[in-house]
Design a protein that fits this description.
A: mainly alpha, MetI-like fold, 2 domains, B: mainly alpha, globular
C-alpha cells in the first residue's frame, strides 16, 4: 500500500532530501579535503596546459595579431578554413597524411601482433628473453638518432644498403631525396623501432588467457597453429580492437617529429603532411591563425573518426574506449 | 606437456624461431655497426669497407667529440632537463593519480574524464606555443619540463597500480588518525617502488630523447639539449663547430662521418648502458597499464 502525501508534505520531503544530499556532499568534501588538495596541482596543470590551448583555438576564427592578443584580434569567420580548402596543397596534404597512415596501419599494425604470437610459441626461455630485450631496444633510442642512422644506412656513397645494391650489381638509389621512397622508409623504420615494444601489450593479453583452454585443446590433439588460431587470437582480440580504434582515430594525424627530421623540399611531394605543414606555416612563417585553423581541422576530423569507430565497435563487438 | 610434436608443429616452430631471430638481428645489427663504424679508421669507413666489426682502430673521432664544448654544454643541459623534468613529472603524476585511485573519492570519475579527454582532443601546436610565450616561458629551461610534465597514460598506469594496494591498509591508517597526504607518502609510496621506478624511467628516457620542444621553445644555444646538437650533426650534417684538426676538405668530410657515429654512441651510451638492467621494469610498467587499458 502506498502512502499518499499532500503537497505540503511532498515539499518538505523534497527539501529534506535536498538538504541531506547537500549535507552528504559537504561531509564527503570534508572527508576528502586532503585528496582534493593532492589533486589540485594536477587540475591546475590540466587547466593551463591542456584546456587553455583549447581556448586558444578561437584564433582559428580570428585574424590573430600578437599585439592585440587573442581577445582583441578581429573575427574573420571561416576565412582561414576556406583558404586552406582552396589551397593547392590541400589535397596533397590530405593524400599524404592518409596514405602514410593507411600503409602504416596495413604493415605496421599487424607486425607486433605477429611478433607477439611468434614469441609466445618459443619454448627456449633464454632465447625468448634475449629476443625481447633486443627488440625493445630501438624504442628507447631518440628519433634524432634513429633518423640519423637511417640516413647513414641509406646514404648513396657510404650507406650500407647502397653498398649492398652495388655489390649485387644494381644502381645507386638516392633514397632520401626520392619522393617515391619516403613512405617506405618512414613506415619501415617505424616498424623496426616499434615492433618489439608494441608487442608487449599483446604478450600481456596472451598471458591473461586461461591455460586450461590450451590444455583441453592439446588433449583434443590440436596442432600449435590451430591453438594459436582458435585460442590465442580470439583471446587477444579485445586488445587488438581497442588499439585498432585508437589507430583508426588518428588516420588524419601523423606525428611531425620524425617527418621534419626525414623530409626535405625535394620529398615534400609525398612527405609533407598536415602536421608538418602546420609546423612550417605556424612556427616557421608565424601565420598563427591559418596554422591553427589547419590544426583544428585535423583535430576535429580525428575526434569524429575516433568517436565513430568507437561507436561502431561498441555495436559490433561490445568493445569500446568509453 | 610431454606430448610428442607432430611434423607440422615442428615446422611451425622452426619458422617461428627463424622469424624471431631475424627481427632480433635486425634490431641489434645497426647498433653494432654504429659502434664499429665509430671506431674504424677514416679510410676504411669512407671506402665502405666496414660491415660488422671495426676496420683498423681509431679513437680520433671520440677525441674530437670530447673536445667539443658545445657537446659538453648540451650534455649538462640534458642532464638538468632529465633530472628536473623527471622530478616534476613524477611528483605531479603521483599526487594526481593517488586521489583518482580512491574508490570513495567524489571527484574521481569527473576528473578522470576531464583528464582523459585531452588524449583525444587538444589545442594543438600553435595555441600551445602561444600559451608558452604568453606565460613567459619561451627561451627558459622551464619550457622543456613543465608543459609536458603530465601524461594521461602515466596517470592511468599509476592509478591502476595504487588500486591494487589493499584498501584495508588505508582504512586502518584512517582509523589511526592519518590524513590522506600522510597515507600516500608514508604507506602507499613505500609499497609502490615498482611503479615509481617505471615512471622515473619513462619520464627520464622521454626527456633524454626529446628534441622538438627545444627547437620550438628555445633560441638560446646555451640552453640546447643534446638532441638538438645531435640533430645538427646527424641530420643537418653540420660539424663546423668541431675542431677537426685538419684543413683538408676531403679529409674533413671523412672525419665527419666518423664523428657522426661517435656522437651517436656518446649520446646514446647512457641509455644503452642502463637499458639491459632496467628492461624488466619497462615491461612491468606497460603490463600494469595494459590490465585496465
Amino acid at each position: 500500500m502506498e502512502t499518499t502525501y499532500n503537497a505540503d508534505q511532498k515539499r518538505t520531503i523534497k527539501r529534506n532530501q535536498r538538504d541531506l544530499r547537500r549535507y552528504n556532499r559537504k561531509k564527503a568534501f570534508q572527508r576528502d579535503k586532503y585528496l582534493w588538495l593532492l589533486v589540485l596541482p594536477g587540475i591546475i596543470w590540466y587547466a593551463i596546459f591542456a584546456y587553455a590551448p583549447m581556448y586558444g583555438l578561437v584564433i582559428a576564427f580570428k585574424d590573430f595579431s600578437p599585439f592585440k592578443g587573442i581577445w582583441g584580434s578581429p573575427w574573420v569567420g571561416i576565412k582561414w578554413f576556406k583558404d586552406f580548402f582552396s589551397s593547392h596543397y590541400f589535397w596533397r596534404l590530405i593524400r599524404n597524411t592518409l596514405l602514410i597512415n593507411v600503409y602504416g596501419l596495413l604493415w605496421g599494425f599487424p607486425a607486433p601482433i605477429i611478433f607477439a604470437l611468434l614469441l609466445n610459441e618459443l619454448q627456449h626461455e633464454g632465447f625468448k628473453k634475449f629476443s625481447q630485450t633486443v627488440s625493445y631496444l630501438p624504442h628507447f633510442i631518440s628519433t634524432v638518432v634513429i633518423v640519423g642512422i637511417v640516413m647513414d644506412f641509406l646514404s648513396p656513397s657510404t650507406g650500407l644498403i647502397n653498398r649492398m645494391i652495388r655489390a649485387l650489381g644494381g644502381e645507386t638509389i638516392h633514397f632520401m631525396i626520392e619522393p617515391g621512397w619516403f613512405r617506405t622508409i618512414y613506415i619501415a623504420s617505424g616498424i623496426w623501432q616499434g615492433i618489439g615494444w608494441n608487442s608487449i601489450i599483446y604478450l600481456a593479453a596472451i598471458s591473461g588467457i586461461d591455460q586450461e583452454l590450451y590444455e583441453a585443446a592439446t588433449v583434443d590433439g590440436a596442432s600449435r597453429l590451430r591453438k594459436m588460431w582458435h585460442i590465442t587470437i580470439p583471446g587477444i582480440l579485445p586488445t587488438v580492437v581497442i588499439l585498432l580504434i585508437l589507430n583508426l582515430g588518428s588516420l588524419l594525424s601523423v606525428g611531425y617529429e620524425k617527418i621534419i627530421l626525414m623530409y626535405n623540399p625535394r620529398t615534400y611531394e609525398t612527405a609533407d603532411v598536415i602536421s608538418t605543414y602546420v609546423y612550417r606555416r605556424g612556427i616557421g612563417d608565424a601565420e598563427y591563425s591559418f596554422a591553427t585553423a589547419v590544426g583544428l581541422f585535423q583535430n576535429i576530423i580525428n575526434f569524429i573518426m575516433i568517436a565513430t569507430f568507437n561507436q561502431i565497435s561498441k555495436k559490433v563487438s561490445e568493445i569500446s574506449l568509453w | 606437456m610431454l606430448q610428442r610434436m607432430t611434423t607440422g608443429d615442428k615446422v611451425f616452430l622452426v619458422i617461428a624461431y627463424i622469424l624471431v631471430a631475424l627481427v632480433s638481428i635486425s634490431c641489434l645489427y645497426p647498433f653494432i655497426y654504429v659502434i664499429s663504424a665509430s671506431l674504424s679508421d677514416y679510410e676504411s669507413l669512407a671506402r665502405g669497407e666496414v660491415w660488422l666489426l671495426p676496420k683498423g682502430i681509431n679513437f680520433e673521432a671520440y677525441k674530437i667529440v670530447f673536445e667539443t664544448d658545445e657537446i659538453w654544454t648540451a650534455y649538462g643541459n640534458t642532464i638538468w632537463y632529465v633530472v628536473v623534468g623527471t622530478i616534476i613529472s613524477l611528483f605531479l603524476t603521483t599526487i594526481t593519480a593517488y586521489p583518482l585511485s580512491r574508490k570513495t573519492f567524489g571527484g574521481r570519475n569527473v576528473l578522470t574524464a576531464i583528464f582523459s579527454f585531452t588524449m583525444f582532443f587538444g589545442g594543438g601546436l600553435i595555441p600551445t606555443y602561444l600559451l608558452i610565450r604568453d606565460l613567459g616561458l619561451l627561451n627558459t629551461r622551464w619550457a622543456l619540463v613543465i608543459p609536458g610534465a603530465l601524461s594521461v597514460w602515466n596517470i592511468i598506469i599509476m592509478r591502476t597500480f595504487f588500486q591494487g594496494i589493499p584498501d584495508s591498509l588505508t582504512e586502518a591508517a584512517t582509523i589511526d588518525g592519518c590524513n590522506d597526504i600522510h597515507i600516500l607518502f608514508k604507506i602507499i609510496l613505500p609499497l609502490s617502488m615498482p611503479v615509481i621506478s617505471v615512471m622515473i624511467l619513462f619520464y627520464a628516457v622521454g626527456q633524454w630523447n626529446s628534441y622538438f620542444s627545444a627547437i620550438i621553445y628555445l633560441n638560446d644555444h646555451k640552453l640546447y639539449p643534446l638532441q638538438v646538437i645531435l640533430r645538427k650533426i646527424l641530420i643537418q650534417h653540420d660539424t663546423t663547430d668541431m675542431k677537426t684538426f685538419t684543413s683538408d676538405l676531403d679529409k674533413m668530410r671523412e672525419v665527419a662521418l666518423n664523428i657522426r657515429y661517435a656522437t651517436i654512441i656518446v649520446s646514446t651510451l647512457p641509455i644503452l648502458c642502463v637499458y639491459p638492467f632496467l628492461q624488466k621494469y619497462f615491461v612491468k610498467g606497460i603490463m600494469v597499464g595494459a590490465i585496465k587499458g
